[in-house]
Amino acid sequence: MAATTFEMDGSVMEGGGQILRLSAALSCVHGSPIKINKIRAGRSTPGLRPQHLSGLELVRDMTDGNLEGAVVGSTEITLTPGKIKGGSHVADTQTAGSVALLLQVSLPCALFAGGPSELCLKGGTNAEMAPQIDYTVKVFKPIVEKFGVYFDCDVKMRGYYPKGGGEVVVKVNPVKELSPVNMTERGNITKIYGRAFVAGVLPFKLAKDMSTAAVRTIRKEIKDLYINIQALQEKDKACGNGNGIIIIAESSTGCIFAGSSLGKKGVYADKVGVEAAEMLLRNIRHTGCVDEFLQDQLIIYMALAKGTSRIRTGPVTLHTQTAIHVAEQLTTAKFSVTKAEDESSSSETYIIECHGMGASNPSL
Ligand SMILES: Nc1ncnc2c1ncn2[C@@H]1O[C@H](COP(=O)(O)OP(=O)(O)OP(=O)(O)O)[C@@H](O)[C@H]1O
Fold first, then answer.
1. Which residues form the RNA 3'-terminal phosphate cyclase domain (predicted)?
2. CA–CA distance from 289 to each of 10, 216, 295, 349 (Å)?
């Protein structure tokens, strides 16, 4: 008997690509068809961009499924997933579309596959409005391991806007089910480090300027920690020109936060460094356990886990609220967001609690 197709409104709340990725991933994990309409209606160029299209094609291939209406610019698609199989799959945005966002849609599927997966993801490794691949590896990966999600990510080639040309190979082992997490103790910041890079024809001085400006900015607030932001010239493993920075902070309780930024034409390198530093400071001033980006990226794992997860956060972003909305529509998970009332919450912090649906891998 054909399963009924769920309809998801892609224009609700944040109205961006995240709704599409979450809906597609959950549809694959459930094995039930989904129709997503008004895709990215909240954006100036609505409809699918190459990154969204490649991500959908990837999960279609991973599930031997069927995808209708999916071309660049479409505002309505229907995905009918089959059984998630393991094996090797390639997704190529053919642009600087983010490989980290290709992983965002495909990782939940790979976890509930019948065997190990190897995903070759091509596009931008350090792209705007997306996690830099360094964020995925250094921030997202160690935290998502707390749910029992393990993957290896090999950065073969870095790629930047506008050329793309980056490539990462991600290996994922399937799981039976995911464990809930409890991240409610922030502890003290014990380590701050990062990387400031240039690639292609751009002068190494830009990397040093980003690093110096970032350290200077952080020093104004944090005086007692050694801050090591390495300036790097990307050589053989980089396609095209680019520059950027990511700064990571770790706490005594294992929380990890980041601030990052990418160079743009006409923007001074030290401004790029200051922007990343200010982003990091904003995310460690509160006593939450995740930064403003990890918040929304963890929602799907909270929803899929078996049991109750609790995460202390700073101000809850619209991306996070949207992810919760989608997860509640498409799973039996129940979320609550409450203002933290205890003594350590002099800043605005919240507890996101989720009673997960306890998704179980039918193949294991
Ligand atoms: N600087 C950053 N560091 C880490 N993650 C980031 C950063 N900027 C954005 N992200 C993450 O990237 C994702 C962006 O989702 P979003 O829906 O906005 O993007 P999109 O697919 O490019 O679509 P759209 O173009 O519609 O915005 C979110 O999960 C967000 O947390």
1. 13-337
2. 29, 24, 9, 9
Give me the pLDDT at residue 3, please: 74
Q: What is the CA(320)–ligand 1 centre distance, in A? A: 11
Known binding positions for ATP = 104, 293-297
**Ligand 1 within 6 A of CB of 138:** no
Q: Tell me whether 0.95 is exceeded by the ipTM.
A: yes
Would the pLDDT of 230 be above 50?
yes
Residue 346 pLDDT exceeds 70: no
Domains of the chain: 6-183+291-355 (3.65.10.20), 189-284 (3.30.360.20)
Report the distance separating Cα 352 and Cα 337, nearest Å.
5
CA 40, CA 270: separation in Å to the nearest integer? Answer: 33
How many CB atoms within 10 Å of residue 221?
12
pLDDT tens column, 10-22:
999 999 999 999 9
Mutate to test the pocket of ligand 1, among 11, 12, 18, 140 (most ligand atoms within 8 A of CB): 18
Average pLDDT of the chain to the nearest whole number:
96
For the segment 145-163, what is each residue's pLDDT rounded down to a tens digit?
999 999 999 999 999 999 9
Report the residue among 12, 72, 264, 293 best suited for mutation to probe ligand 1: largest number of ligand atoms under 8 A from its CB.
293
Per-residue pLDDT band for 127 (boundaries 50, 70, 90) equals very high
**Does residue 131's CB lie within 6 angstroms of at least one atom of ligand 1?**
yes
**Cα 71 from Cα 18, distance rounded (Å):** 17
